[in-house]
Amino acid sequence: MKRDYPIIEAPTSRWILGYIISILSFVVVAFASYFLKIESLILNAVILAVIGILALLIIDKNFLLKIFKPLKLKDLGYIVLGVIIMFVAIIISSIVLSKVEMNVSNNPIFDMIDKENLIEFFISSVIQFITEEIIFIIPFLFVINKSKIQNRFLKVLLAVLLSSVTFGLMHLSTYDFNFLQAILIISIVRTGLTMSYIISKNLTVTYIVHIIYDWSIILAGLQFAVNF
User: Fold this and answer.
1) Whose CA is closest to 29, among 50, 47, 55, 56?
2) pLDDT higher than 70, residue 226
3) Selection from 213, 51, 40 nearest residue 131 by Cα
4) For 114, how many CA atoms within 13 A lie in the half-sphere containing its CB?
5) How many CB atoms lie within 10 A of CB 49?
6) CA-CA distance, 40 to 42, in Å (whole number)?
7) 3-class secondary structure for the chain?
8) pLDDT per residue over 43-60, tens digit each?
9) Is 112 exposed, middle or buried, given 0-12, 13-18 or 19+ CB atoms closer than 10 A?
10) I want to staple 6 with a disulfide (CB 3.0 to 4.6 A). Which of 20, 66, 88, 141 is the partner?
11) Rounded to whole angstroms, how far apart are CA atoms 60 and 54?
């Protein structure tokens, strides 16, 4: 049976509430980490993932199962294709950077990670990416399910634009509130990642591509820039 985008029959109010909760998950973790003195990156990531999953369940009790599907043999090909698309997105974002005068902020992870905490960072990031993909998928599937646009291509295009831009804005604090960097660069990279979902209709594929992409960049950065 050919995969398609899942049907989520939920009122708009639930979509909005779920999305707000998914975004607030980062605020909750920040406060919990500060006031409860939680120093474990893994525990913070688990809290983040639990809240993200709760946000999905508020919209639809079967939401999680509708988007994270078991991998099939063809999904392995989608993963490889997704990784290739991601590196094409890097090239595109690099071209944009060369054409637009912009002060680029570095990801603070390179100032926080070292040989001693590398494994902890990896495990926590793998858990955190669950919520990051949830934050992407809610606005994407909201457009797919709620938009009255009849043209499927235009509907998917609108879903990509909305989910990519909002995802980019979510990274404002990470990049010192560099608005242009968040909107242009992060959104372009997110669009590349989104293509793996459009192709596979399986967020498990996108999630794995996300891990491979991010950690390829992190390890390369540590190797060549920090003499790791």
Assistant:
1) 47
2) no
3) 51
4) 3
5) 21
6) 5
7) CCCCCCCCCCCHHHHHHHHHHHHHHHHHHHHHHHHCCCCCHHHHHHHHHHHHHHHHHHHCCCHHHHHCCCCCHHHHHHHHHHHHHHHHHHHHHHHHHHHCCCCCCCCCHHHHCCCCCHHHHHHHHHHHHHHHHHHHHHHHHHHHHHCCCCCHHHHHHHHHHHHHHHHHHCCCCCCCCCHHHHHHHHHHHHHHHHHHHHHHCCHHHHHHHHHHHHHHHHHHHHHHHCCC
8) 999 999 999 999 999 999
9) exposed
10) 66
11) 10
* Residue owning tokens 């989608």: 78
Q: Stretch 64-84: mean pLDDT, rounded?
A: 96
- ∠111-116-122 over CA atoms, to 5°? 75
78: Cβ–Cβ under 8 A, 6 or more apart, which residues? 196, 199, 200, 202, 205
* Amino acid (1-letter code) at residue 186: I
Q: Are 210 and 217 in contact (CB under 8 A)?
A: no
Paired tokens of 68: 């994270």
The answer to whether 58 and 25 have CB atoms below 8 angstroms apart is: no
**Cβ(24)–Cβ(135) under 8 Å?**
no
Q: How far is 214 from 168, CA to CA, in rounded Å? A: 15
d(CA 33, CA 12): 32
Whole-angstrom distance, CA of residue 64 vs CA of residue 57: 7
Are the C-beta atoms of residues 184 and 104 closer than 8 Å to each other? no
Q: How far apart are CA 139 and CA 155, in angstroms?
A: 12
pTM of the model: 0.90
